[in-house]
Amino acid sequence: MNNMLKISGLIALSALGSLFAADAGKVAFVSGSAEVSRAGKWQKLALGAMVAEAEQVRTAKAGTLIIALKSGAALKLKPETTLTIATADTNTAIELQGGSVFAKVDKRRSGQSFEIRAQTTVAAVRGTEFFFAYGKKEKSKSDLWLCVNEGRVNVTDGATKSEVDVNAGEGIIVPTDKQIPKPKSYAWTKKLNWNMDAGKGGVEDKSSLKGAYSDLMKQNYD
Fold this sequence. Notes:
mainly beta, nine-stranded mixed β-sheet, Jelly Rolls, 47% strand
């Protein structure tokens, strides 16, 4: 009996510890449909719901979701976006699997980091506000788009071993299996809705990424 109690106690403590360790952030805004994958099933997310590390979240065709991370950063998922919050503490890492996301990151202290990964590309920041999205798909990979509203984002691509810094007001497109081009100012970046404060209202971004792609491809990437 004592052994059974000890084992039960250890299991309970382990589960409790995992619960606290897995805490990633809270839903600060949701419109339309947004879901989280738990125990192999998709469950609807409501305002105030918690999201854990390693959980995958997604928005539907008309869904917008804002997650306030425990690290002090915030994410705004546009419709039809899927991502996983791998870690959300001193070192925050987001895996973007599809769609597009806004990120607002307070200035990181020494030893802290924040990055969003998509395919072989990593966007790392110390304190900034930026937008990261999947673009046109080519074969098994997609172009990636990124623009910065405040601060600076360091972008690296493991496949091509290329790297650039994107400053406020600039944007880039990372073509499939090609070197990251020099950042430039693009008209489409000004059409994005950067508001992530639900208290101010109007946080949904209505910009068209299809229209943005036409603007990007007109530019000279030489």
